[in-house]
Automatic annotation (TrEMBL):
Residues 218-298 form the G5 domain. This is Peptidoglycan DD-metalloendopeptidase family protein. It comes from the Bacteria. The keyword Signal applies. It holds the Pfam family Peptidase_M23. Residues 42-69 form a coiled coil. Keywords: Coiled coil, Signal. CDD domains: M23_peptidase. GO terms for molecular function: metalloendopeptidase activity. Residues 1-22 form the signal peptide. The keyword Signal applies.
């Protein structure tokens, strides 16, 4: 071990020839040794000891928090001499030039490899904390060190644990003062993958650093948990019903999505996600299924004889009768915002297409002697041979064929004879 202030005194008496001088009257000198090397002799060893103490105290003052001592042993050999040759100046110079300081340190090991020398265990712990803080906030780290954090609430993510991928240990030792590292230097050594150098590697530190892979000596492994909510889609159940015509559907019960909470755990290594898994699932609201009724009732091809207005609103712009020197066989309906044209009664489409002055024309045979005509449509939504029910869309009001504007020309025939539509329908 190094010496805090190690001095050894050895008494040697040198007496000249004869007895003219009594031993007690001879002057005393002290030979000073650094280890086994003689550096000179002095009359006052107290001055040398004082110099040693002062140098040590000054060094400790300049390296606050460090326990220092001398690496070399300083010893004194007492001798009685006839004449004194004081070599105090040489001795003090030797103390200045030949003595080196040693520091009590904590050596930090990562995965069994020595990494750095720190002045204290507290400083060594700071190195570990600093490495972790590269990937976690200080307040999060403090919460973890106080104990296992509480699980996150919905919409919240929490760091639950921060650890290292390899064991970190410490050992007390003494080293030269020049071999003591600061916290910052030690952190760099860990992050840059530089274990404690061999005796010759410090002389080629630049080359050595360039040769390193920059892979850290230890990885920071972080675990976080997130609690989130997701929607559970509702199911749709289709039910047959003979209360609706085939092709019709009706929502009997509105569907509503449910909700479930998930607790997701993610693991990161040096800030990169390496694993994610859902560790908890809890349904907080069950979904409500949607029930849709599908009609099975056959659409009748025979009408009821009771007709409905074939447009969505509107007004009569021209009635049945003589007009412009000719007989107008039906009524004209216009002035609507919704241009849907509807079947006036159940029946079967016997004509659907373009027909001269009628333009786009649909004819429905109601199977009971009645037949209705819908003309000047801009588009047709049914086909010949198709069975339609009362109120079903046949097409869109337009101005095709011989027309003076957007309108519907509507006729009703019974057993081949023309009927007045206004005898059967009204706006």
């Amino acid at each position: 071990m190094w010496k805090k202030l190690a001095v050894t005194a050895i008494s040697v008496v040198s007496v000249g020839v004869g007895t003219a001088y009594a031993e007690s009257s001879l002057p005393t000198v002290y030979h000073v040794y650094i280890d086994e090397h003689h550096v000179g002799m002095v009359e006052n060893q107290a001055e040398v000891k004082s110099e040693l103490r002062e140098r040590l105290e000054e060094a400790e003052a300049n390296h606050e928090g460090m326990e220092l001592s001398y690496m070399e042993e300083v010893s004194f050999e007492e001798q009685k001499v006839l004449s004194v040759k004081d070599e105090s100046s040489n001795v003090m110079d030797s103390l200045q030039n030949e003595l080196t300081f040693a520091a009590d340190v904590v050596r930090l090991y990562v995965n069994g490899e020595p990494v750095a020398h720190l002045p204290s265990e507290e400083k060594a712990e700071q190195v570990i904390e600093s490495v972790k803080k590269e990937y976690v906030e200080e307040d999060e780290l403090e919460e973890i060190e106080e104990g296992t954090p509480e699980l996150p609430d919905v919409g919240e993510t929490k760091v639950m644990d921060v650890g290292l991928s390899a064991p970190v240990t410490m050992e007390e030792d003494q080293v030269m003062l020049s071999q003591v590292h600061t916290v910052e230097e030690a952190v760099s050594r860990v992050e840059e993958g530089r274990p404690f150098p061999s005796p010759h590697s410090e002389t080629t530190s630049f080359i050595g650093m360039m040769a390193k892979s920059q892979k850290p000596l230890v990885d920071v492994v972080l675990t976080e948990k997130e609690r989130k909510e997701e929607t559970i889609p509702h199911k749709v159940q289709m039910k047959k019903t003979d209360e609706l015509f085939k092709g019709e559907s009706e929502v009997k019960q509105e569907g509503e999505g449910g909700r479930r909470e998930l607790l997701v755990e993610r693991t990161y290594r040096n800030g990169e996600e390496i694993k994610e898994e859902t560790i908890e699932k809890e349904v907080v609201k069950e979904p409500v299924k949607e029930i849709v009724l599908q009609g099975t009732k056959k659409v009748p091809s025979e009408g009821t004889g009771d007709f409905i207005w074939p447009a969505v609103g509107g007004e009569i712009t021209s009635k049945q009768g003589k007009r412009w020197g000719r007989y107008h066989k039906g009524i004209d309906i216009a002035g609507v915002s919704d241009k849907t044209i509807k079947a006036a009664d159940h029946g079967k489409v016997v004509e659907a297409g373009y027909r001269n002055s009628f333009g786009n024309k649909v004819v429905v045979d109601h199977g009971n002697g009645y037949e209705t005509i819908y003309a000047h449509l801009s588009s047709i939504d049914v086909k010949k041979g198709q069975t339609v029910k009362k109120g079903e869309k046949l097409g869109v009001m337009g101005t095709t064929g011989r027309s003076t504007g957007v309108h519907l020309h509507f006729e009703i025939h019974k057993k081949g004879s023309l009927e007045n539509p206004l005898s059967h329908v009204s706006p």
